[in-house]
Design brief:
By secondary structure, the chain is α+β, with helices and mostly antiparallel strands. The chain has a single domain (19-128), classed as Immunoglobulin-like. It is 22% helix and 45% strand. The strands form 2 sheets. It has a 5-stranded mixed beta sheet with strand order 4-5-1-8-9, covered by helices on one side. It is globular, with a radius of gyration of 18 Å. The relative contact order is 0.26.
């Protein structure tokens, strides 16, 4: 009976573990409404947001914000696009298709929370730290 209980606990624990991580995309206004696909499966549509800046005192958050401003050229009050989705761990194929049919592709290895910048007007998609 103990062995059966232990087997059930171990199997239950394995079933509860996930091999997914968060993928965060930020993009220029040209990516608003873009379809995002991972390994051929749509994981979401990039939404329109208005950039308001961050009031965080965390140095990592501030550095990420500075990189966002530099990569996308947005300032407080301007619109940009964003999407967060759970994606599988490991090597994935990321594809972003804008409403204007611009297709941007990026092979990624997802091991932790992953950040990507999409700049449709420049035809650029990059992973950022």
């Amino acid at each position: 009976m103990r062995r059966l209980w232990l087997a059930v606990v171990l199997l239950g624990s394995a079933a509860c573990q996930t091999n997914e991580h968060s993928l965060h995309l930020s993009g220029d206004a040209g990516a608003i409404g873009a379809r995002v696909l991972v390994n051929g499966r749509e994981v979401g549509i990039m939404k329109e947001l208005t950039y308001r800046g961050s009031d965080s005192s965390d140095a990592v958050v501030r550095a990420r914000e500075a990189k966002l401003l530099e990569d996308l050229g947005i300032r407080p009050g301007q619109v940009y696009s964003a999407l967060s989705a759970k994606v599988p761990s490991g090597k994935v194929a990321l594809i972003v298709v804008s409403p204007s049919a611009t297709r941007l592709e990026l092979p990624l290895t997802v091991q932790t929370e992953t950040f990507v910048r999409v700049n449709v007007s420049k035809g650029v998609i990059v992973q950022v730290e």
